[in-house]
């Protein structure tokens, strides 16, 4: 029996065990996906223990996606460019840090777009998810990618490190200047952690009023958020982060096993679990 796991803090809410265990069953792989809550102080010991043999693969989430980098033996080119790791692949006793969030986002982006690649995108947030989204958008050919964050210095630092990793062309605007800029965005991505609780929303209604009605909104939160409801009321096409969750998980599974993941089975498992939790 092999084990896979999610390292983060907190992890108890995660849908990954349901999603991956359904996939293991469908693929005939004898493995169980576990949750390993890990504080920052325990991260190094946790990663060292991964060398223990029966581990199929590991995912990493908040707050460790950047802190885990120096603990990896190698980094994939994708993880190096993004500057964050969400997947650990074990080969011949070495741990390679990879990132499947950008892949997951690009699948979501492809599914929601009906026309050509948008020329302009605005990302709210500057954490690990925003890094992956920015790289995915640049790679998809979005000409102008702009980031804004409540803490401006974090957005500046993000753009600086992406530039250093060979990802140019990303601008930063002040959070307070959103109102004057949001109308230029053909795509708006919520990559803040706002949206998980009740009706919380990352931006004021007046900012949403300024959105181009032809724009598209992607909220990385995988629930029906107040942001999604508000933009749909304005006639704007919008989607949540559930496809990103599923595709990043599927890509991790493919990296661990070399096998084609059962995306339909994973989707059904996650949707059923969400329905179960909401009742
Ligand atoms: P981080 O903790 O790294 O970043 C959080 C971001 O949210 C920061 O930019 C932070 O700004 C911002 N933020 C927090 N509170 C507020 C607030 N009150 N007002 C405005 N901005 C705020 O998280 P991640 O980047 O890893 O994740 C961001 C979101 O994306 C989470 O909701 C996560 O669940 C989701 N996600 C979804 C995935 C999917 O598969 N669908 C994959 C990965 C992430 P500041 O710097 O100022 O604190």
List its salient traits.
279 residues; Rossmann fold; six-stranded parallel sheet; binds NADPH dihydro-nicotinamide-adenine-dinucleotide phosphate; six-stranded mixed sheet; 2 domains; 11 helices; alpha/beta
Distance between the termini: 33 Å
Average of the residue pLDDT scores: 96
What is the C-alpha radius of gyration, as a whole number of Å?
19 Å
What's the total number of strands?
12
Major sheet: 6 strands, mixed
Please list the strands of the largest sheet in the order they lie side by side: 2-1-3-5-6-4
CATH architecture of the largest domain: 3-Layer(aba) Sandwich
- What sequence of helices (H) and strands (E) makes up the elements? EHEHEEHEEHEHEHEHEHEHEHH
Bound heterogens, unique = NADPH dihydro-nicotinamide-adenine-dinucleotide phosphate
Determine and state the CATH class of the largest domain: Alpha Beta
SSE-based structural type: alpha/beta
The number of helical elements comes to 11
The fraction of residues assigned to DSSP E strands is 15-25%
How many structural domains are formed by the residues? 2
Please bin the fraction of helical residues.
40-55%
Low-confidence stretches: none
- Structural shape: globular
Tell me about this structure.
The protein has 279 residues and is α/β, with parallel strands linked by helices. It folds into two domains: 2-100 and 248-266, Leucine Dehydrogenase, chain A, domain 1 (Rossmann fold, 3-Layer(aba) Sandwich); 103-242, NAD(P)-binding Rossmann-like Domain (Rossmann fold), CATH 3.40.50. The protein has eleven helices and twelve strands. The chain has helices at residues 16-27, 43-49, 77-82, 101-112, 128-140, 152-164, 178-181, 205-209, 226-233, 242-257, 263-278, and strands at 2-8, 31-37, 55-60, 74-75, 87-91, 94-98, 120-124, 144-149, 170-174, 187-190, 216-219, 237-239. The strands form two sheets. Strands 2-1-3-5-6-4 form a six-stranded mixed β-sheet. It has a six-stranded parallel β-sheet with strand order 9-8-7-10-11-12, sandwiched between helices. It is globular, with a radius of gyration of 19 Å. The relative contact order is 0.14. The protein binds NADPH dihydro-nicotinamide-adenine-dinucleotide phosphate (NDP). NADPH dihydro-nicotinamide-adenine-dinucleotide phosphate binds next to helix 4, helix 5 and helix 10. The site of NADPH dihydro-nicotinamide-adenine-dinucleotide phosphate (NDP) has 25 residues, from helix 4, helix 5 and helix 10.
């Amino acid at each position: 029996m092999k084990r896979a796991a999610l390292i983060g803090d907190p992890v108890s809410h995660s849908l990954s065990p349901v999603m991956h265990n359904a996939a293991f069953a469908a693929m005939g792989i004898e493995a169980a996906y576990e949750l390993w809550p890990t504080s920052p102080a325990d991260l190094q010991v946790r990663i060292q223990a991964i060398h223990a043999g029966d581990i199929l693969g590991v995912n990493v989430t908040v707050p460790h996606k950047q802190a885990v980098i120096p603990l990896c033996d190698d980094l994939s080119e994708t993880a190096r460019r993004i500057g964050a790791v969400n997947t650990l692949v074990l080969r011949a006793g070495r741990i390679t840090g990879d990132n499947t969030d950008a892949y997951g986002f690009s699948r979501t982006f492809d599914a929601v777009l009906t026309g050509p690649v948008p020329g302009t995108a605005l990302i709210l947030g500057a954490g690990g998810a925003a890094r992956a989204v920015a790289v995915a958008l640049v790679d998809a050919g979005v000409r102008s990618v702009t980031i804004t964050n409540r803490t401006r210095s974090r957005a500046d630092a993000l753009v600086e490190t992406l530039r250093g990793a060979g990802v140019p062309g990303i601008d930063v605007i002040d959070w307070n200047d959103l109102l004057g800029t949001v109308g230029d965005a053909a795509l708006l991505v919520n990559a803040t952690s706002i949206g998980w609780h009740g009706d919380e929303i990352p931006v004021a209604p007046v900012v949403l009023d300024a959105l181009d009605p032809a724009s598209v909104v992607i909220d990385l939160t995988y629930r029906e958020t107040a942001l999604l409801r508000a933009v749909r009321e304005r006639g704007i096409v919008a989607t949540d982060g559930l496809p990103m969750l599923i595709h990043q998980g599927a890509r991790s599974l493919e990296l661990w096993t070399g096998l084609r993941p059962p995306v339909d089975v994973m989707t059904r498992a996650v949707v059923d679990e969400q329905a179960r939790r909401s009742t």
